[in-house]
Amino acid sequence: MPNRDANPTGGIPSTVDVDDPTDMPPPRTIKTVTGGVLMGIANLIPGVSGGTMILAMGLYTEFIDSVADLTAFRFRRRPILFLAKVGIGAIASILLLAGVILDLLFHYPIAMYALFIGMTLGGAPLLAKSLKPVRLDVIVATIAGFGLMIAVVMLKTGGGLPHNTGMDLVSGVVGSTTMVLPGISGSYMLLVMDQYDRVIGAVHDLKQALQTQDMDALKSALWIVIPVGIGAVAGIVALSNLLKYLLHRRPRVTVGLLLGVLLGSVVGLWPFGKIPSNDALEKRSTEELVQFAESSGISIEAGASAEAIVLEIRDQWADRAYDDMTPANILLAGVLIAAGFLLTFWLSSRGTELRTGN
Question: Which of 89, 114, 289, 345 has its Cα between 20 and 30 A from that of 54?
């Protein structure tokens, strides 16, 4: 069996050879499905990378190689079973947790975004460790990645991109390609593109429609989910092959760029002063909206409809007499940033290290 840990091209090592025709034993199956579950959860949370979760579980090379195997029409048993088990775990976690994550982001935005910041930064030590000793090309690549993310955040207008089928396809491509990159969050990129709540909301609506057998709601949700799914498949296939090539041919520069993107991505996740998107607000009951407005220092007329409350929240948000930067909120954010960092750092330390060669 080939020894991937001794790969001289600088790839990411894996403990299992994807060309082995034998099936995975039960412990390996459990680890693979768990990796898929973590990957799915990560891609529901802005700022958390599904690629980092797969890397932390020691499955990253097998994931990339398996996708490359299938796209080259080498239909071997192990890659198919491996991707099926990862996919089952990811899809199950997305279907079960999409609504929960959207609710938490609405009710506890400071706490959730602080946690996301910490979880994003928790992947940095693994990437940085793999770049020692540091060279000039790596420094340049890291700065370039950081600058790229700062530019993305600065260019964001919050509503400049349309919500239509074409953008759903693009969302699938962007969300999936960033999903397989260690340290880069597909959910965050959807947030930057102002598509996050539309995509996650459609997944949640699909789940509800299947439960209630509401055909109109099912059709509406599928009109979004299907293009996103098509884009996701195309994106994973394209970037997996490109990433495999780059990590083997220019590993240090590639990982340096990824580190810069990871560090720059947290700028757009700063937890204070964020307003919920239209999709998040419109999914709330009148009582929830009233409570949210009161807690945010926004005055609402008695008896106002949910639609009118949403308009008032958006109109008054910039001028609200409310300060998020209270000592309690700052302390809470600090604690959760640290907790998120330690969680992802611990997961990363349990997985296989990223190796970049000499």
Answer: 114
Q: What is the pLDDT of residue 143?
A: 95
Instruction: Check residue 57 and report its DSSP letter.
Output: T
Task: Tell me which residue of 9, 4, 38 sits closest to 350, measured CA to CA.
Answer: 38
CB 316 within 8 A of CB 299: yes
User: Residue 232: in which H helix or E strand, if any?
Assistant: helix 215-249
- Own/partner pairs for 154-163, CB < 8 Å, 24+ apart? 156/192, 156/194, 156/268, 157/194, 158/194, 159/194, 160/194, 161/193, 161/194, 161/195, 163/195, 163/198
Q: pLDDT averaged over consecutive 10-residue blocks of the chain (358 residues)?
A: 38 38 55 83 70 72 80 83 91 85 79 83 82 90 89 62 84 79 70 78 86 86 91 85 80 85 79 71 81 82 84 80 81 93 76 50
- The reported pLDDT for the residue numbered 357 is 53
**What whole-number distance in Å separates Cα of residue 318 and Cα of residue 146?**
28
Give the Cα separation of 197 and 161 in Å (integer): 13
**Residue 309 carries which side chain, given as an amino acid letter?**
I
Q: How far apart are CA 219 and CA 225, in angstroms?
A: 10
pLDDT digits (tens, 9 = 90+) for 49-69: 677 677 667 677 788 878 878
Radius of gyration of the chain (CA): 21
Here the tokens at position 288 are 């929830």
**Residue 126 to residue 341: CA distance in whole angstroms:** 12
How far apart are the C-alpha atoms of 21 and 72, rounded to whole Å?
17
Quickly tell me which residue has 């099926």 as its tokens.
Answer: 84
Rounded Cα–Cα distance for residues 320 and 297 (Å): 6
| Per-residue confidence (pLDDT) for residue 132, from 0 to 100 | 83
